[in-house]
Design a protein that fits this description.
Elements lengths: L17 H35 L8 H29 L1 H20 L4 H29 L5 H27 L4 H14 L2 H11 L6 H6 L3 H28 L15 H15 L3 H15 L3 H18 L4 H15 L5 H6 L3 H13 L3 H17 L1 H39 L5 H24 L6 H16 L1 H11 L6 H53 L8 H7 L3
């Protein structure tokens, strides 16, 4: 069972300078904004980067994957190094380092001399994300008064989802400035380079904010800490905080191995459960599926897929090097041609019967020459039809608009639900929100799996389940994993311990990103979402049994509770 935490101290009697604290917290939340922007901006630039660097999806799939994953890969070494650097040089200096890395990465990624330089630039940005994911929550926890710590800590997650949301409109606006050729040559550079602007703003606003007073006490700079604490809550508050921090410091050795001692075993397990559980709850899978489900529900998704599959099948059949492969590709193209969604479009432009005839000839051919001739005729028919090109372009345009609408709705849900977390975290508490959020996640994920089993993949119920899951995650596991982990570790080890916690989340993020397609292909969506539901259930049980309520308690009270 979780250890009890003693009643809060007399801090409620102090008058806090919330304007000063809110300014420091808001500046720190810009680190979260840069985190969100840097991870999301690549989605809008990806297609144009493939064209710019001449990457063929059939040949260069690894390189294309690296374009997307390079920043996430950089998060792991960033997270690993951040704790030691933060404990040695201070939270504020590490935030300066984050701003510099974000700005440098944006500019280098916008003007790379070659593909390797681009990947290196994205890795630098990833290191910045890894460092920010440790430093921002810790700084917020250490500067905030206990009654406000949950709300101010949640600002980091609000910054992340705001960065992701705003990126949608920035990418969309830049894409609209020119055609595909302009975006391939210039547009993607603007998308990536714009990230330097908030990085410079972050750098400038970090100048007036104070260093973490708890870190200052930890390294013996009590006079500086007293000035910061007195400005936050007055001399009485400063005296109480300094005495409390010095008391817990006298009980710590400060060695990293101490984190694995019996006293701090529970907070370490809690950090592992929350960070890994947040990723193994299936959030990335839901984000991956949401757009395609939204498109299917609106009726355009299957049409767009069928049109793409038809064109790909015809091209592959025409270029096949052996008869069996060519026949298989021709049959696949025929399947797309006869789909209920695409057939009316082909009949409208007068190509349905002629294309079907050539593809049937190719599929039934007994030699490669006959197959190639028929497939090339089908290719000529499709490529030479301006009417078909117009219809397909219209379909693509509608699909892109629907996909953008889906992303906007998901972004809005994230923002609003994170706002709910800010309102409730210091009233309802961390534990009730986490229990409620995980319980809803279990139900929503199990229902999504059941709908897939019933082949109801384009129903309003599925969209409703996805929205329900997203709200539950955004108001609990999304923000509170950062908040709780920044609260539960000892003062001398807080930076290094939080570094380990962020290492957990980035390793889990990469594992899910790489394992999800394998699970989907091997287990199918029913068992895949069932697995995510089971992981959320395990997180629920762990939170119920292990996590003490931390709202309204000082960091020192929380630390002392682990010794009981």
């Amino acid at each position: 069972m979780n250890p009890p935490i003693s009643p809060a101290t007399s801090q409620s009697s102090h008058s806090f300078n919330l304007g000063y604290v809110l300014f420091a917290a808001a500046v720190t939340a810009i680190g979260g904004f840069l985190f969100g922007y840097d991870t999301a901006v690549i989605n809008g630039a990806n297609t144009f980067l493939q064209h710019h660097f001449h990457l063929d999806p059939k040949v260069d799939s690894w390189s294309i994957g690296l374009v997307t994953a390079s920043a996430i890969l950089g998060c792991i070494p960033g997270a690993m190094a951040s704790g030691v650097v933060s404990d040695r040089f201070g939270r504020r200096r590490v935030l300066f380092l984050c701003a510099l890395l974000f700005g440098l990465s944006s500019l280098l990624a916008a003007f790379p001399p070659n593909f390797a330089a681009f990947i290196a630039a994205r890795l630098i940005g990833g290191i910045g994300i890894g460092i920010a994911s440790m430093a921002c929550p810790v700084y917020l926890a250490e500067i905030a008064p206990p009654a406000w710590r949950g709300r101010l800590g949640t600002l980091f997650q609000l910054g992340i989802v705001s960065g992701i949301f705003l990126t949608l409109f920035i990418n969309g606006y830049i894409q609209g400035m020119g055609d595909t050729a302009w975006n391939t040559a210039t547009g993607w550079r603007w998308m990536l380079g714009v990230g330097a602007v908030p990085a410079v703003v972050f750098l400038a606003l970090l100048v007036p904010i104070p260093e973490s007073p708890r870190w200052l006490i930890t390294v013996g700079r009590e006079t500086e800490a007293r000035k910061v604490l007195a400005r936050i809550g007055g001399e009485g508050y400063a005296n109480e905080e300094i005495a409390a921090v010095q008391e817990v410091l006298s009980q710590e050795e400060g060695r990293f191995s101490e984190l694995f001692s019996r006293r701090f075993r529970i907070p370490l397990v809690i950090a592992f459960v929350l960070m890994v559980g947040s990723q193994f709850s299936g959030i990335n899978a839901i984000m991956y599926y949401s757009t395609s489900i939204f498109l299917d529900a609106s009726g355009i998704g299957k049409l767009s897929t069928a049109a793409s599959s038809l064109g790909e099948g015809i091209r592959d059949a025409a270029s096949a090097k052996d008869l069996a492969t060519g026949q298989a590709k021709a049959k696949a193209a025929l399947g797309s041609l006869h789909s209920a969604e695409l057939q009316p479009v082909l009949e409208k432009v007068g190509l349905g019967s002629s294309l079907a005839s050539e593809l049937e000839t190719a599929a039934a051919a007994t030699d490669l020459a006959t197959l190639t001739t028929a497939a090339n005729k089908a290719k000529s028919l499709a490529d030479g039809s301006e009417s078909l090109k117009g219809e397909l372009k219209a379909i693509e345009g509608i699909a892109n608009k629907k996909a953008f609408s889906c992303s906007v709705w998901i972004g809005l849900v994230n923002l609003l639900a994170t706002g709910i977390a800010i309102l409730l975290v210091d009233k309802a508490g961390r534990k009730p929100l986490l229990l409620f959020g995980n319980a809803v996640q279990v139900g929503a994920l199990a229902f999504i799996g059941w709908l897939f089993q019933q082949h109801s993949t384009s129903t309003p119920m599925l969209l409703g389940s996805i929205a329900t899951y997203t709200v539950a995650f955004a108001m609990a596991m999304g923000p509170l994993s950062w908040v709780v982990c920044s609260e539960i570790f000892p003062a001398k080890l807080r930076g290094r311990a939080m570094s380990l916690a962020t290492f957990f989340i980035w390793v889990a993020c990469n594992a899910v990103a790489m394992g999800f397609p394998v699970m989907l292909n091997g287990m199918g969506p029913v068992w895949t979402f069932g697995f995510f539901a089971a992981c959320s259930l395990l997180t629920f049980v762990a939170v119920l049994l292990l996590l003490p309520e931390t709202k309204g308690r000082t960091l020192e009270e929380i630390e002392e509770s682990w010794a009981r």
